[in-house]
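Let's study today's protein:

:::
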Amino acid sequence: MTIPQFLARLRNLGVKISVEGDRLHCNAPKGVLTPELRDELAKRKTEIIAFLQVAKTWSGPASSIVPIQALGSRRPFFAVPGHNGDVFCYVHLARRLGTDQPFYAFQPPGLDGRHPPLQRVDELAGRYLAELRSVQPEGPYLLGGYCAGGYIAFELAQQLRASGEEVALLALFETTSFWVAPAYLRMRELVRYRIQSFAEWSFGHLKSLGRLKPRQQIDRVLAKVRRVRQAMDSRTADRKDTYAAGADQVRRATAAAIRQYDMRPYPGRISFFRASHLTARLSYNRLVDWRSFAAGGLDICEGPPGCHPDAMLREPHVAFFAENLRTILQAVGGKTAAV
């Protein structure tokens, strides 16, 4: 669930959220804030504060570029989110990189539910290129993309290179060939990956339950049931929410755009961040596919065991990827922002 969706869910429950500095204030009707909901608020506090702070300064749907971290003297890093358009998936990564590293993300048009999403990867990249230059007029540029957003970052790098600009870094976070594979392969490999992931997840939870007393085991299972029920209720509420409707349109449009995207070799080097060995199946173990599109070479950074794509940009796993990304940023010489 994205931060805007989570906040919409809270609004539907009558919960009012506000932020003052680094403090989050919550006003809710009696009995609404269950222990599970309080836990979720605590876990998402950093992202909620970042979202509300950015919302005060962001110019709205007319602008695609969102300042996750606008301060700092280093060259800015520009990132494209996954196919749901949730730019706040980068909040933890931006914070881990430090307050001296400016970090911007591109929000796709159409999330407001009132404007149609763009239907082509080159159109999205072209829009982002124009807004990127409003922040940083000339290169070298530092780019990244998470999941499906990596293809848009890839095209953005292509367009910048074609216009004579230098791209010092193109970082792809779990951008696998899964998105551009034939439909029957996507379904087969996705099912295989889900089964393997569920098996490892179940084994870990059973071991954890085995260390608890019988009463604690029952409480743990009941808490999980309540969380599942809340998730189902939130999906029902999402159908009435404008943002959720827009996000669904953006998801479908982005996935369709990537499937018809005609890729061509990129003349530069690509840094590929993979969540763990588990997710190799989503790329059919064919990282050679990306090597064939990275004329300047491909560097692979594999995350810790058990990490999966949905968790790689969240705590605690994001610390590993932030440290590796910071090392790369230092190596490519992003010390001074060219603005």
User: Anything to note?
Assistant: The chain has two domains: 1-57, 60-331. The longest strand covers residues 167-173. Residues 236-240 have pLDDT under 50 and may be disordered.
